[in-house]
Design brief:
2 domains, 7-stranded parallel sheet, 6-stranded parallel sheet, globular
């Protein structure tokens, strides 16, 4: 099967959730025997040097890039405000990307076209004009839900008005696209049910983030002492919101009961305000070169997430690494967990504090949660099995679409 994948950012390097999820799916599809061609936006927010991409990955994906500037453009934002169109989406639609996409579609045909993230759906008209392949939206999140939360939490009146416009415009676009694509691949069952409610589509499937278990590094011995860490890209609003809440509401309670415990914060785009807080035992590590090696240094991961949708890639990776995890119901969304067996769920500052103290005092519980978490990931997030399920879904789309038949030579 020949698959064209349009990405809103480069799937390499694997430095944050989106690229990690895209890279995992590309690798899984290639391993399953499919041909994958990648066209990606190379944005100023996630800018990469194509020369740094491994030759093997470049050869297998024939990856091409189009430079894209996502810097806020006041005239463009005002125009979209007046026309009630989504500025989030408009930023990703450029003449250069459209020309490159058109050239690719004119030169070769594909069995499936996969849109990574909603923003690539702005090219739907071009895809329909030059290709008969079924078009599938792989949704990492329900995008408008994230921005709805941002608008609701904004206290500046003027900014609230504009953010509310952004959320509503994005919602209109997102719901409209759900009924224009041929299939939807949600990253969690919860998102799949929401997409089913929001659309008329019957071709919806849930394919969670998968891990190639055979490529995981060897396990290291778990730390004897309790130690806390959080890792996440901090220019994503829900992550920054969660850490702000953690430091203001939870950490004072924790330090009263555990004055020696330390919390390490890692991730790209660490905001300056965190470093300026000078809170006791908060260590800001920023961006780390090797996430897996970094996680091995600590025993407890905290993910106090209260907004967003989709699945938390870092939680799945930490579970695969055998870490004990404390998170919220939203943070654990998309993972088929049992509270107290695979991880601990907290809902407020008091329960989050109690969970931290409990795990700090009980190494056996930390080890048990970590072992159970690893078993769950092996059972339900094996990328090879997930790609088999996705392939079956794509074959069904092709069988039900007149004039479409997968290339049997691939």
């Amino acid at each position: 099967m020949k698959i064209l994948m349009l990405c809103n950012k480069s799937p390499w390097p694997k430095r944050e959730g989106g690229p990690i999820a895209m890279h995992a799916m590309i690798s899984g599809l290639l391993q399953a025997g499919h041909s994958v061609k990648v066209l990606a936006a190379n944005t100023n927010k996630y800018n990469i040097d194509p020369a740094t991409i491994p030759e093997d990955f470049k050869e297998k994906t024939r990856i091409e890039f189009v430079d894209m500037d996502l810097t806020l453009n006041i005239p463009g934002a005002l125009k979209n405000y007046l026309t009630r169109k989504s500025y989030h989406v408009a930023r990703f639609h450029t003449k250069e990307f459209a020309q490159k996409l058109t050239a690719i579609l004119r030169s070769e045909s594909f069995d499936i076209i996969q849109l990574e993230m909603l923003y690539m759906a702005s090219y739907l008209d071009i895809l329909r004009k030059y290709s008969k392949a079924p078009i599938v939206l792989r949704a990492h999140n329900i995008e408008h839900k994230i921005w709805q939360r941002v608008a609701e939490n904004c206290t500046n009146p003027l900014k609230h008005i504009y953010l509310n416009h952004l959320y509503k415009a994005l919602k209109r676009f997102e719901i409209g696209i759900l009924n224009k694509v041929d299939g939807i691949v949600a990253i969690t069952p919860v998102d799949a049910r929401n997409f089913d409610r929001l659309s008329h589509s019957t071709n919806i499937i849930s394919i969670p983030f998968g891990i190639n278990l055979a490529t995981l590094p060897e396990d290291l011995d778990q730390p004897e002492e309790a130690s806390l860490f959080h890792i996440g890209t901090m220019n994503w609003f829900p992550n920054e919101e969660s850490i702000r809440w953690m430091l203001s509401e939870v950490w004072p309670l924790v330090t009263k009961r555990k004055p020696d415990i330390k919390l390490h914060l890692a991730g790209r785009y660490m905001p300056e305000w965190i470093s300026k807080l000078s809170l006791p035992n908060i260590i800001v590590d920023g961006e780390v070169p090797d996430v897996w090696e970094y996680m091995q240094r600590f025993s407890i991961m905290v993910v106090p997430l209260f907004s967003g949708s989709g699945i938390r890639i870092k939680i799945v990776e930490a579970m695969a690494a055998g870490k004990a995890i404390i998170t919220t119901a939203i943070g654990a969304e998309g993972i088929n967990y049992e509270n107290g067996q695979h991880l601990l769920i907290a809902k407020d500052a008091r329960s989050f504090t109690d969970a931290i103290v409990k795990l700090c005092d009980d190494k056996n519980l930390r080890d048990t949660l970590g072992k159970n978490a690893k078993l769950l990931i092996a059972k339900e997030h094996d990328n090879n099995k997930l790609m088999q399920k996705l392939t079956a879904f794509y074959n069904e789309l092709l069988e039900n679409r007149p004039g479409c038949k997968p290339d049997e030579n691939i």
